[in-house]
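Board notes (copied after class):
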Amino acid sequence: AIRSAVFAVRLLAAFWTIHHALPRHLNVPKLIHCLYLFSNANMKLNHLLVGSYLGSPALGYYTVADNLAGMPIREIVGSLDATLFPGGAPIANDNERL
């Protein structure tokens, strides 16, 4: 857990460095991409550690448990996204209403 936390802090520091190094007009797309890459690497780090230290059978159990634990959040966010995204689309370019 400590290694994962240290890794997350390092990724955040790298993200912050990249954020300030990019030109202003390129910030949004590159930052979203970098954030996706960093968060994906951070989410998969624990799987890599479990697999390397405990072996394949333990990794299988861990992966199933991890998927089951994340299922309620995925279902709630998916429902909200499917409902709120179409509702917000008409005001996407209206800065005053946002």
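Comment from the instructor: DSSP finds three helices and no strands in the chain. The chain has a mean pLDDT of 76.
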